[in-house]
């Protein structure tokens, strides 16, 4: 009998505001909501510190609260998105076109978890 191991996953983080977080909660912590027309790209980040900075310094100022979420995505699927360096050496993110977000969500393994909260 051959055992199949679960596919490898990559941990991603996403800084988010209260409105987006509520939509994630409504999905039972399984999916990111569709982008708005002025949001052509979904930006998960590859490093927790960077996500914390955005949630604390940007989301709190603009939304009154900021949250950092952590989630796992199948690594093989993610290989289609080159890592983008958006500033410093540790400011790394993926650029997922809005029209691919449903497919991206289908490759999330487990639940999206809130790991930090700032107000």
Describe this protein's structure.
The protein is an alpha+beta fold and 119 residues long. The protein has a single domain (9-118), classed as ADP-ribosylation fold, CATH 3.20.170. It is 29% helix and 30% strand. It is built from four helices and seven strands; from the N terminus they run E-H-E-H-E-H-E-E-E-H-E. The chain has a three-stranded antiparallel β-sheet with strand order 1-3-7. The protein has a two-stranded antiparallel ribbon with strand order 2-6. The protein has a two-stranded antiparallel ribbon with strand order 4-5. Strand 4 (84-85) and strand 5 form a beta hairpin. The radius of gyration is 14 Å and the shape is globular. The chain starts with 8 loop residues before the first strand and ends with a strand.
Quick synopsis:
By secondary structure, the chain is α+β, with helices and mostly antiparallel strands. It is built from four helices and seven strands; from the N terminus they run βαβαβαβββαβ.
């Amino acid at each position: 009998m051959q055992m199949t191991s679960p596919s490898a996953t990559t941990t991603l983080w996403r800084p988010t505001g209260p409105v987006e977080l509520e939509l994630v909660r409504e999905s039972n912590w399984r999916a990111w909501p569709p982008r708005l027309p002025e949001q052509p790209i979904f930006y998960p980040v590859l490093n927790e510190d960077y996500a914390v900075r955005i949630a604390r310094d940007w989301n709190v100022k603009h939304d009154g609260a900021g949250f950092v979420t952590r989630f796992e995505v199948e690594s093989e699927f993610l290989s289609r998105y080159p890592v983008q360096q958006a500033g410093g050496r540790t400011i790394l993110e993926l650029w997922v076109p809005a029209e691919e977000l449903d497919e991206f969500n289908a490759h999330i393994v487990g639940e999206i978890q809130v790991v930090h909260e700032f107000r």
